[in-house]
């Protein structure tokens, strides 16, 4: 981060250890906290009050380890000249606090992306900021952090209304809420500055009209709040809010939801958006930032975004890409320059306003009945720590998000393959080659999948069989491709989680957390209770072969039986069988490779010849 010029990083690690001490001082037992803290793979959602208890409880070993790690992180940040951003109190409290303080104004919020609000997942208990207890807990948390870490920062993050609307839209009331949040910080640190996500102004725009926005933004002294224009790369709020009504803000790129592996971006917006904001009339922009949910994808996007803090003029992207390709691969090769020019105008030119979330059919849970005339419910909101809206096309079948010509991107792949003789020794070249090959094959798989669904609807048994076999073969081939690069291995993720454990019990819990986060969140063998199916999906070798391939095989088997027996597709039976498989897989302990095997260039060439030879 320091090498990229980042000087205001979040430092959220270890906060559960601080919360443990704070809440125990308010007569909350460790047993009560076992049902409050989320598991290691779900802490982001637990911290923001989306869920609690899921994946936990956290062991004392974990709490101690993370606190020690946080102290090491903070020490290193300070050495590198960074100002850490520490968490503060948002009102998210254990359910037991209501019993301990029965007169406190605590509200149980509604279910978050579950059907029945199961207690092992839901729901958040929110302490009203105007309650005197709020300031006491908030102050205690700030003071304990200072006692543990020293005087390392004056900047604290709080997002008390993240996907949770205030109980009334009365501006006076909203102002009092904001003032209370800030007062809790300031009582713990008199120089406190509130750093707040501006996501709520986009995700809940129906509530946050100008009077409500002004009430919140002006509830603290000017200069004591900084807003993150979280989604400015797609939906900049500064343009429609008079520069956040004179409140300082940071122009941010969100870019990635769920840590999905999908080539996607808007390079033109990145290369011009921060400059436009900075030179706009009465600009209150004070910096640029990145707020992705996962960073290990699309290196070109983050490379360009990192430079924008140092630029006061718009970047000529095409010229920039030529130097980028040379720097990335170690030498200038005309095929790579030509390939990146194509990618710039296609994959990295998503101007349809839809925030991408990988819903390619290999990794998208097929929870629909493709029979003619059947109703397919639209997924109006993709849930997560941050949600965004998208609409499916008017069709009886779901549609994957596609914003570019797939044939042009296949041409870019051919150019990248042709550069292999010069660049095969470059690890960054091999990564990009695997990623682009995966991209074009996954889009081909989308077409094959829809062809299979159309054949099913037409009761064309022969075509259905052909297309489904082709789809399954594509999954197998992509898995072999991904296995050839260390960056696309399931085993790396699982082993890194297991290595944190200090005993067998922790190892099983951490592996379950890691397996569950990237697959299905909270379902039982009987019902579909969660809407979080494959939210954090990954194109990883091992995951395709052992998870997505059996899923597609089983689903197609149910469709085949429906055709063979001339009967309705048994959606509920399919759901139950798959949930059972997924539950067992998440509890599994089988090992996956942590080292790549095979030559990416030869594999990519072979797959190109197999699937795209007509483009030669």
Detailed description of the structure:
This protein has 616 residues and is α/β, with parallel strands linked by helices. The chain folds into three domains: 1-154, TIM Barrel, CATH 3.20.20; 198-315, no CATH class; 334-615, Up-down Bundle (Four Helix Bundle (Hemerythrin (Met), subunit A)), CATH 1.20.120. Helices cover 47% and strands 6% of the residues. The protein is built from 23 helices and eleven strands. It has helices at residues 15-25, 30-34, 43-47, 60-79, 97-100, 132-149, 171-188, 199-203, 210-217, 242-246, 267-279, 299-307, 317-329, 334-345, 406-418, 420-423, 427-457, 461-482, 490-498, 504-517, 543-565, 571-586, 600-612, and strands at residues 86-87, 92-93, 106-108, 125-127, 155-157, 193-197, 225-229, 249-253, 285-290, 381-382, 388-389. Strands 1-5-6-7-8-9 form a six-stranded parallel beta sheet. A three-stranded antiparallel beta sheet has the order 2-4-3, with no helix packed on it. Strands 10-11 form a two-stranded antiparallel ribbon. Helix 1 (15-25) crosses helix 4 (60-79) and helix 6 runs parallel beside helix 7. The chain starts with 14 loop residues before the first helix and ends with a helix.
């Amino acid at each position: 981060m320091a090498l990229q010029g980042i000087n205001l990083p979040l430092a959220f690690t270890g906060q559960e250890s601080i919360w443990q001490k704070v809440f125990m001082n308010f007569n909350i037992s460790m047993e009560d906290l076992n049902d409050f803290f989320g598991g290691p793979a779900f802490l982001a959602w637990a911290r923001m009050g989306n869920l609690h208890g899921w994946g936990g409880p956290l062991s004392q070993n974990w709490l101690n380890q993370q606190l020690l790690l946080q102290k090491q992180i903070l020490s290193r940040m300070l050495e590198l000249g960074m100002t850490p951003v520490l968490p503060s109190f948002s009102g998210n409290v254990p359910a037991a606090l209501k019993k301990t303080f029965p007169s406190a104004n605590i509200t149980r919020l509604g279910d978050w992306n579950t059907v029945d609000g199961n207690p092992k997942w839901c729901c958040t208990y929110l302490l009203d900021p105007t309650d005197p207890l709020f300031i006491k807990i908030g102050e205690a948390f700030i003071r304990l952090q200072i006692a543990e870490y020293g005087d390392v920062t004056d900047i604290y993050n709080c997002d008390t209304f993240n996907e949770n609307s205030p109980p009334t839209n009365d501006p006076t009331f909203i102002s009092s809420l904001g003032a209370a949040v800030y007062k809790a910080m300031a009582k713990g640190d008199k120089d406190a500055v509130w750093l707040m996500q501006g996501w709520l102004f986009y995700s809940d725009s129906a509530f946050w009209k100008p009077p409500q926005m002004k009430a919140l933004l002006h509830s603290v002294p000017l200069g004591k709040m900084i807003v993150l224009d979280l989604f400015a790369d797609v939906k900049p709020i500064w343009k429609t809010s008079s520069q956040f009504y004179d409140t300082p803000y940071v122009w941010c790129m969100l870019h990635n939801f769920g840590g999905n592996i999908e080539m996607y971006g808007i390079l033109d917006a990145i290369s011009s958006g921060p400059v436009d904001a900075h030179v706009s009339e009465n600009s209150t922009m004070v910096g640029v930032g990145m707020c992705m949910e996962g960073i290990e994808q699309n290196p070109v996007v983050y490379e360009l975004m990192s430079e924008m803090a140092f630029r006061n003029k718009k970047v000529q992207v095409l010229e920039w890409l030529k130097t980028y390709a040379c720097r990335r691969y170690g030498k200038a090769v005309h095929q790579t320059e030509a390939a990146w020019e194509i990618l710039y105008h296609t994959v990295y030119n998503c101007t349809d306003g839809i925030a991408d979330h990988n819903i390619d059919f290999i990794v998208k849970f097929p929870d629909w009945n493709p029979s003619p005339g059947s109703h397919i419910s639209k997924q109006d909101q993709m849930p997560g720590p941050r949600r965004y809206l998208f609409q499916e096309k008017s069709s009886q079948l779901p549609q994957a998000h596609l914003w570019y010509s797939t044939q042009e991107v296949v041409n870019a792949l051919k150019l990248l393959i042709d550069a292999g003789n010069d660049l095969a020794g470059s690890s960054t070249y091999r990564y990009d080659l695997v990623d682009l090959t995966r991209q074009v094959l996954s889009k081909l798989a989308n077409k094959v999948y829809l062809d299979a669904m159309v054949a099913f609807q037409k009761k064309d048994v022969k075509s259905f069989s052909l297309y489904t076999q082709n789809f399954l073969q594509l999954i197998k081939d992509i898995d072999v491709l991904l296995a050839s690069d260390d960056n696309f291995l399931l085993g790396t993720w699982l082993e890194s989680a297991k290595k944190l454990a200090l005993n067998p019990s922790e190892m099983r819990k951490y592996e379950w957390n890691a397996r569950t986060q990237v697959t299905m969140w909270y379902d039982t063998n009987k019902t579909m209770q969660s809407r979080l199916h494959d939210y954090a999906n990954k194109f990883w070798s091992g995951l395709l072969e052992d998870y997505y391939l059996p899923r597609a095989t089983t689903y197609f088997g149910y469709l085949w039986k429906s055709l063979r027996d001339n009967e309705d597709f048994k959606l509920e039976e399919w759901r139950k069988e798959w949930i059972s498989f997924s539950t067992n897989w998440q509890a599994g302990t089988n090992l996956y490779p942590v080292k790549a095997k095979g030559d990416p260039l030869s594999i990519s060439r072979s797959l190109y010849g197999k699937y795209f030879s007509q483009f030669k």
